Prior knowledge:
Blueprint: H1 2-22, H2 29-38, H3 42-70, H4 77-105, H5 125-141, H6 148-162, H7 166-173, H8 179-185
Amino acid sequence: MANLYTGHELGVRRAGYLTWRSHGRGQRPRYAAKSAKAGAAWSWRSLVVVFGFQGLLMRRISMPLQFAVRALGDVGSLDLASAVLTLVGVTFEAVGDLQLARFRARPQNKAQIITTGLWRHTRQPNSFDDAVSWWGFACFGVPSGAWPTVLTASLVTFLLLRVSGVPMLEASMKHQPGSSAYVSRTSAFFPLPPKDS
């Protein structure tokens, strides 16, 4: 049951952070570009392409976890591992977001890349935390026979590494000053010691 709590905390914490971060700033650049290109059709197109697609994907990805919740039995060692992994993911994300917010709050850091704190060890703390959290959910599903939770965690990790997480953020970072040096010494996904240490 601890995993259900940390899973809800993950969603509530992220929604709150994204609302705070985005308030008064308008659309994100990638969506602003799509909106400008589509014109008046963007309202309907975004409903289908952005929100509809993500909603269907989330529904499909979460189905094994929903099965696991319905089949919940006694709490065992994998449930505890699940809670720990999910808590690590939520904590990692919260710390990374706090470090990034503090970094961006300083005017001298405008258009700079954060290379301190968690960001010294991975260029993608948020993508890493998502993967860790989903592997926590996978551990939660296995004891109740919801083995597809492992496939779900694998799919989410693949999407983060190859489709939505790392590739999109890396593309947005490549024109910033110091990005090539940062990329050469810092792990893209898994937190590791920097290569220059």
